[in-house]
Amino acid sequence: MDSLTVIGGGLAGSEAAWQAAERGISVQLYEMRPEMSTGAHVTSDLAELVCSNSLGSNLIDRSSGLLKEEARRLGSMLLTCAEATSLPAGSALAVDRKAFSQMVTQRISTHPMIKMIRREITTIPETPTIIASGPLTSDLLAQAIGRLTGENRLYFYDAIAPIVSLESIDLQIAFRASRYRFQEDGEGDYINCPLDREEYDRFVEALTNAERIQIKPFENEIFTGVKAGAGQFFEGCLPIEILALRDRQALAFGPMRPVGLKDPRTGRRPHAAVQLRQDNLAGSLYNMVGFQTNLTYPEQKRILRMIPGLEKAEFVRYGQMHRNTFIASPKLLLPTLQFTRREDLFFAGQITGVEGYMGNIATGLLAGLNAARVLQGKHAVELPETTMLGALCRYITRVPLEEFQPMKANFGILPPLDGTTRLNKRQRAAAYSQRSLERLVPYIDQLGQGTHSPSLSRED
After folding, report:
1. Most buried of the four, 182, 262, 357, 358, by CB within 10 Å?
2. Residue 333 and residue 375: Cα distance in Å, rounded?
3. Nearest one of 384, 359, 369, 394 to 439, comparing CA atoms
4. Are strands 86-87 and 114-117 parallel, antiparallel or unpaired?
5. Backbone angles phi, psi at 297, to 5 degrees
6. Is residue 87 within 8 Å of residue 55, measured between CB atoms?
7. Which residues make Cβ contacts (< 8 Å) with residue 163, sequence separation at least 6?
8. Is 113:24 a contact under the CB 8 Å cutoff?
């Protein structure tokens, strides 16, 4: 029987293992937790979400929504789990992170074609393999990848946001609303903490003078192609204190933008607002949206309690920052996600340089499908660059290395449209999406759907 090794039980690895197994491939899925911790994960469940609990927009005229729809049509198992454990989040897909990872773990561990092995892998197998070890790849495995590729590791620093308990939020000050849709009945999908100009200025002043956790010496090594030091952050996930240092109004125009909100106490739009999004099905925990931080824990407690409505906040999880590892994909990978020097070796997920939960899931999906095809004597499939997933894979494997930085799905990486000069931004996005989904159709038929297990439901 054809056999495949998948290294890493995160979003990409879990999706890849499932897709290959659904096509009759015997899969050995290696996950080092709980034998070896990463410092960011808190459970041993597969597909644990360590940052936000949102998978982005569901609207197909948004880049993340388009990627989501492509993955849905290609049969993503993790997306089905996410929809089965979803929480109210307006037009976005947010999940109860515990229920989501537990459902993925249950599905993987009971699949008849998947054997889950809880052990660290420190060498690259010479047999068909998908490496989806993620941004927190262990040192020994990273060294093995370096020996295989002849490249040193690249890295950037990533940060996660705090979570607070609902009962500790002062709802006499904070109010429920979604942007542009204030709910008179108090049933908005987000909790909003409003700040006036003076409150905002005091908050920013405290942030810029706060004590931050120091980068560990071993994390300050110089890696090929990337400047070392604590300043190497992923631009799409900057800590709030770094934003505040760049410009005092950066937060008010970024994660604290008040556009579309109205403070019911004043009837006016606040100068700034902190949004909190439901983080579990019980509705007892809320994530501070866009509030990634590397402040020390005492400083987080002191400064975040300066936010109106959070004066007595109880922090279930503090924010933290960690090093993310990714390879030099433009030199090492094909758009099929195959290693350039071995057709039976694939990489998927954040280690390739894709960003965002859906990017990880979607590249895991494609790697799993292509690995199965190679094992079955077929050619790996390169999706057209007019699809969002195809464009994302093409970007990370074709962009000049000196310009390479982790990339999320966005319309800017798609080829230009013809005859759309008179369209506005939303109309162009809709046209991009329509073209992408039309071009995907023949590949859905070519890649086929799995047949080895039943469909999922919310009750599973």
Report:
1. 358
2. 18
3. 384
4. unpaired
5. -60, -45
6. no
7. 279, 285, 286, 287, 288, 315, 316, 317
8. yes
Token output for 164:
């607070």
The domains found in the chain, sorted by start residue, are 3-151+327-447 (3.50.50.60), 160-322 (2.40.30.260)
Cβ partners under 8 Å of residue 213, min gap 6: 294, 295, 296, 320, 321
Orientation of helix 297-304 relative to helix 197-208, angle to 10°: 170
Nearest to 16 by CA among 102, 106, 131: 131
Residue whose structure tokens are 């068909």: 128
Q: CA-CA distance, 370 to 381, in Å (whole number)?
A: 6
Q: Can you give the three-state secondary structure of 236-273, one letter per residue?
A: HHCCHHHHHHHCCCCCCCCCCCCCCCCECCCCECCCEE
| 21-51 pLDDT tens trace | 999 999 999 999 877 776 666 678 999 988 7
- Which parts of the chain have pLDDT scores under 70? 1, 38-42, 152-159, 180-187, 214-237, 322, 419-421, 449-460
- Residue 119: count other Cβ atoms within 10 Å of its Cβ: 10
The CB density around residue 370, as the number of other CB atoms within 10 Å, is: 28
**What Å distances lie between residue 16 and 13, 86, 97, 372, CA to CA?**
5, 22, 20, 10
State the Cα–Cα distance between residues 113 and 98, nearest whole angstrom: 25
